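With this grant's support, we have settled on a layout for protein records. A representative record follows, to show the layout.
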Amino acid sequence: MNELRQTAELLQRLTTGKHRFSTKKGEKPTGDALFFSGLLDGSIRTDRDAARLLFGSEENTVAYRSAKSRLYKRLEKELLTVKIDRKKDGEYQWALVECMRMSLIIKMLSSYGKSIAALAYCNYTLTIATEYQLTNIQYEMLRLLQLDAEARGNRKDFESLTTRRKEVARRAAAEVEIEEEYLRIMTITARNSAPDNTDINRAFQALRSLEERFAKEESYSYRAALFRLKVQVYSITGDHAASVESCNEFDRFYDKYPKFSTALRRGEVSHRRVAEYILMRKRDEAKAESKVLKALLPEGTPNWCYCMINYIELCLQMLEFAEAAEAVTQLEKYVKKRDTLLMFKEQVKLYKGYLWYAHQSGWAFKLGADLGQYPFVRRAPSVTKADFTFSQKDKQGANFAFIVLLFLKHLHADTLHKMSENSLKKYEQRYRKDKPTRAFTFSKILQAVLSKQASVEQIIAVCTPLLSKLSELPRTLDSAEILQFEPLWEHIIQRKILHIEHQQALEEAEAARLAAQEAEQAEGELKVEVGEQK
């Protein structure tokens, strides 16, 4: 049902509601219109929902299956004829959709022998594809024109078209090669966020080779793939300033050629710049760029949700709890929707849990943030495997974030003795083995804090070299590190010291009470003894 919903959402977005499934004022909605609106408003999430709405029964009958199939076909036809808004979606997007649609019409005409009409559409399509540098479409149209020149016996036209087609093929080869190199390095980094030196050196040499061989290539697809490759290669080699400059360079390209620019493409550049600023430890710049990115993306879309997650984590890592709480409230409105990714739902739970702790512990108030207006800070979060099923399956160990939240929950309740070190040890063995990450190192620090017999002095002695190692490791918006580990350590150890001082004060008060009680009892006994002697 999700694929049908996404198709309906795209049609609604492209037509702003003016399509065959929209109901005119005063008219009774058709079955297709009911089905369509149910997909959009969330009342239809399953086949049972749709069957109940259309036929009053949840049974998956032949009539229901026919109605669903009919809706599919009508949606497809509507999408094939929809007009792209050049101002709203950008000229490049319009050209891409227009050329693909024309290519389909040309193939239909050609297959039925309507060559005159096909050639008319072919010249129109080639003009657009050339202007917007759509190499695959150009290659296809030039071939059809070559066949026409061959049929007419016009050698001059044929040779001219052949020369053009060879140039397009050369450009297409450059685009394919650089895109494949980008996908290769992304495949490596998806498996390991810190590739080994062999992979890094090979990627760097490949980038240099491609830049030298295709130095004069100007096509948009090539430039876009080159931008992505340069940013990724510079990032993994640690030259984050060069990555940022690559982003700035591509922004300048969009400024010079606005026909290739859309909000989504600008957003991609901005998103990469945010990531590089974080790696450079320039959190203020990253946060400012995140605000720019939020404004570029349509609210409620998956890309916007990813942007909000980055923004919230930046706020939390900068200990700006009030801004984080407001952004979480804004994101939660969309996360509650029917087909939101489970990852987004669990991230919101985590953020609310950390904000609960910041409020209840007084950490937020101490930094000038009053979170009392947000309902989620009043109730302790549930931190169990059932609450974070997606994180449990994460092969990169993102569930460390909820282990830390569980630790903070026990810290607040003065029940750290109830938390076993085994959860941290299992986490290390399962997810972070042989991976020197910040989360792995902080896990060692938490284990030291949980040591039952260790004094504060012993804990600090064990943690000091670990903290030095922590500061040397690269900082990212890691899903395992919701609050920056260094200030979190300072907060934890201060709470630990205050807890110990409180316990000592209680013990001293109790000892003083017992001593006073014993003295009073002894004095009473003495008085009794004296009285008996008299």
